[in-house]
Design a protein that fits this description.
The protein is α+β, with helices and mostly antiparallel strands. The protein is built from two helices and eleven strands. It has two domains: about 30 residues, no CATH class; about 110 residues, Beta Barrel (Lipocalin). Keywords: Signal.
Length: about 140
């Protein structure tokens, strides 16, 4: 019985250390909240210092090396590569529906920002911000 208690106590001490030292794609599990497998609502996109509010249907989900969702009018899919705290969306494909001017303006800004290059991810409290090297950013909320 004493041996089992020591083994259990040792395991209880080692598990948190293993989690703290473990990494997923080079980032400490504790330092980066999960981004994959979550339905994200797009709140806004900021380009050249101007923030554009998202249409109600804009969303994205990143899972299994893919990103898919809606720019607010058109559906899209892309390859998603996550490395450390960066994500790169490439090989984007989209439907080609025409919508009103405001939606199309937002959609073009969002599509350019998401696919322009690697984006730095920062998340907390159900929010995720994707920031391009030039400062443009996409604000997302957990759906």
């Amino acid at each position: 019985m004493r041996r089992m208690t020591l083994t259990t106590a040792a395991a209880a001490l080692l598990v948190p250390l293993a989690v703290a030292c473990g990494s997923e794609r080079g980032v400490s599990v504790a330092s980066q909240p999960p981004v994959t497998g979550i339905d994200w609502t797009v709140d806004s996109v900021t380009v050249d210092g101007t923030t554009h509010r998202a249409p109600a249907r804009a969303h994205v989900k990143i899972e299994d090396g893919r990103a898919a969702g809606s720019f607010g009018c058109n559906q899209f899919s892309a390859t998603a590569q996550i490395t450390d705290d960066r994500i790169r969306l490439s090989h984007a494909r989209t439907t080609r529906m025409a919508c009103d001017n405001a939606r199309m303006t937002f959609e073009r800004a969002l599509a350019r920002t998401l696919t322009a290059g690697p984006l730095t991810m920062k998340g907390e409290d159900g929010k995720l911000t994707l920031t391009a090297d030039g400062g443009d950013r996409v604000q997302l909320s957990r759906a």
